[in-house]
Amino acid sequence: MTPVRTTKRNGAAANLSSAHAVPALPPEWRRFVGHWLEDSGSTVKSAARGDWEVELSEVLRRRWRRQRMRLVFDPQRPTLPRGAWFTAPGSGAGRRLLDAATERPEFACRTALAHVPGAPENGFESVCRVRGLTWGPARLGPVHYERRISIHAVVTRWGGLPWQEPWVLLMSAAGAFLEWAPGLDVPDARTRDGLYQISDAPSREQRARWMALARAHLDRLLGEREAEWDRAVSRQRDEELKRLGAFFSSRIEEEEERLRRRTGNGDESDLEQGDATSLKLEWERRAAEVRSRWALRTEIRAWGVAEWSWPVAQLTQELRSGAVHVRIEAPVDVARGKPAPPACPSCGMPAELLVRARRSVGCEHCG
Ligand SMILES: [Zn+2]
After folding, report:
1. DSSP code at position 121
2. E strand or H helix that includes residue 267
3. What is the whole-number distance in angstroms between the Cα of residue 344 and the centre of ligand 1?
4. pTM of the model
């Protein structure tokens, strides 16, 4: 360990506008970096001031042409030990790590353990209210295991202050979207390694298809979030443009006032007219810079793929009101002991409220 000399810091933090506070790094980022490095065969040791000293794996040694490296996570550090990497979300080093992780995603096989009980005793009552009807006893069918795929990605958002978030997406084996959540792992699932009751191994092409499908889901979901980000970012961008505008208009006003005083009758010389013009050009150039600095751009890097064996079962329950008896059926996520909202018997939409409708049952959409 010889970090004696220091170099000027580099990386994203140096590019951040000094007018803004540097945000603290999310702890998940550190966890992800450590997890990925150890998984790739590197050794991670704690060093002074919260840094990490990393002994790189063979593959990473060749890739980055170094034996070991020092990772610095503290965005407030004014200088870096020589050769250290400032490992912030969106920093040069952070992106190098993510690029390596994307090329060789972790591929894991896992089983979600069944929750006990597999469904709540009151069945659909826990997810669907009723009016003028009563639920009969709930009956849970046999548990079987179906294949699901989770894709773990880090999303970097550029525009103003670069920011990074880990996301996990869960889909069916056919590629249908099931859920997504911020974080490094599928939430609320107890797991063990290996695939319970699933023995056929997916082909390389199948895995590539899953990645493509996951990418399409993430693009769509993040597109929706980008609209939210855009609102937040455009406020800050417009404030900056306003400050810039106020500064330059008063400079130009001063210039024109000076000109009036000097020429007396508004008879301007070319040279002095040129001063106001170059101020206007400078204003335009600076405004274009501000706009491009705040321009929104989202990058998605998938670093892990997990195949899951996921317990599911069918839940059946009767809805009763006098002579009306309607059988309701829907799948249950047995890993979480949670039924899906049942489909409305009249319109088929997932229902959170069922009511009596003529001689049948309807929901809040159709009843
Ligand atoms: Zn309905």
Report:
1. T
2. none
3. 5
4. 0.67
Take residue 26 and report the two structure tokens written for it: 């999310």
Answer yes or no: is pLDDT of 118 > 60.
yes
Ligand 1 center to 189 CA (angstroms): 31
In this structure, are strands 338-339 and 324-333 parallel, antiparallel, or unpaired? antiparallel
Residue 60 Cα, ligand 1 centroid: separation in angstroms?
Answer: 56
Cα 74 to Cα 343: distance, rounded to the nearest angstrom: 50
Taking the centre of ligand 1 as the mean of its atom positions, its distance from the CA of residue 265, in whole angstroms, is: 79
Cβ atoms 308, 280 nearer than 8 A: no
Measured in Å, residue 345 CA sits from the centre of ligand 1 at: 7
Question: In this predicted model, what pLDDT tens digit does every residue of 203-229 receive, in sequence order?
Answer: 888 888 888 899 899 999 988 888 887
Segment holding 307, helix H or strand E: strand 297-321
Q: How far is the CA of 343 from the centre of ligand 1 (A)?
A: 8
Write the pLDDT tens digit of every residue in 68-109: 999 988 877 778 888 888 877 567 787 787 777 767 666 788
